[in-house]
Amino acid sequence: MSFNNLDTLYRQVIMDHYKNPRNKGSFEGDHLTVDMNNPTCGDRIQLQLQVNDGIVEDAKFDGEGCSISMSSASMMTQAIKGKSVDEALKMSHIFSEMMQGKEVDIEGIDLGDMEALQGVAKFPARIKCATLAWKAMEKGVDEQEQA
């Protein structure tokens, strides 16, 4: 597939997640909630996780922001559901490295639609947008472990 076709496909995936976000909403009852924002551009997210016995059983988000931050949150919630907390944190590390333009070893890791965000690395001002949901997940897991 040529670069232009791949770039077009990635843009379509990002816009699909932005216009039709997966896992947008909130939980009733017991769950972990993390609020984060990116003051640079105004992106805001509330991430909710249901974690039991070290497994992310479900994830939802709400918020507002640019297409990159909202599509990344949608992709992330899909990717981490059913994963162990350790797997989710490993995915977060890999995603962060990818956003910094570093070579990453993704063997055995299913990044799903997140690969569509690879091009964000070329725009340093947008990296915080793409990583906002991931940072919220890391913060929430850290806070839960310290509780």
UniProtKB/TrEMBL annotation:
Residue ranges constituting the NIF system FeS cluster assembly NifU N-terminal domain according to the UniProt record: 10-129
Database matches in Pfam families: NifU_N (PF01592)
Annotated InterPro entries: NIF_FeS_clus_asmbl_NifU_N
CDD domains: IscU_like
Family matches, as PANTHER family: IRON-SULFUR CLUSTER ASSEMBLY ENZYME NIFU HOMOLOG
Name used for this protein in its record: SUF system NifU family Fe-S cluster assembly protein
